[in-house]
Amino acid sequence: MCMYDCRSNGFAILLMLLVTALPVDAQQHGTAITEAELQPWDISIAPDGHGLPEGSGTAQLGAEIYAGSCAFCHGDSARGGPAGSLAGGIGTLTLDAHEKTVGSYWPYSTTVFDYIRRAMPYFAPGSLTDEEVYAVTAYLLHVNGIISENFVLDADTLPAIQMPNRDGFISHWPDAPK
Q1: How far is CA 19 from CA 30, 95, 96, in A?
Q2: pTM, entire model
Q3: Up-side HSE of residue 9: CA atoms within 13 Å toward CB?
Q4: Distance CA 78, CA 146 (A)
Q5: Which of 1, 69, 122, 158 has its C-alpha lying 20 to 30 A from 60's C-alpha?
């Protein structure tokens, strides 16, 4: 007696054998991508700031952008809303009632920029310009008390910011530069 439906397993095995026996035509798989074609997709930002684009922004400018693109999900002043708070909670991670926010949880300011740039706003990811991402990042750092309202965030100043939870993670690469 077969534990599984032998007829459907037999069909799956036959299908797998047929597919793997088909000749592979290199032209079916397209052509290699060039460096120039890859460049627009290579948007990763390292914790040390490598890969940050040109541009700048301040919390003052970011407040306006935040109100129009972020407050719907994260609430006024980044404190609440259906997608949760982005501000507050500093010092609560060791408590039962902890709050994971930009200020309390994220170890690097550059990864805040990277995440906003790739994934926000939720309804239109990637729609913000680099200048707008710098401004929204500055706004979030400001409402968490990390930078002043007029602090200019750019590729030089963003990596230099020490986040409150910078040492709250255990690295898989302890010898890597911080």
Answers
A1: 19, 54, 53
A2: 0.77
A3: 5
A4: 14
A5: 122
In the prediction, which pLDDT does 1 show? Answer: 46
Predicted pLDDT at 66: 98
State the 10-residue block means of pLDDT for the chain, 178 residues long.
52 68 61 84 89 97 97 94 93 89 94 96 95 98 97 98 89 71
pLDDT of residue 24: 60
Instruction: Decide if 165 contacts 107 (C-beta within 8 A).
Output: yes
Which two structure tokens, joined as six digits, stand for 44?
């990763």
Residue pair 113/50 in contact (Cβ under 8 Å)? The answer is: no
What is the Cα 161 distance to its own chain's centre? Answer: 17
Cβ distance 137 to 151 under 8 Å?
A: no
Contacts of 66 (CB under 8 A, 6+ apart): 78, 136, 139, 140
d(CA 123, CA 112): 18
* Structural domains of the chain, with CATH: 56-154 (1.10.760.10)
* CA 164 to chain CA centroid, nearest Å: 18
| Angle ∠(67,69,74) on CA atoms, nearest 5 | 70
* Residue from 41, 42, 51, 40 nearest 158 by CA: 51
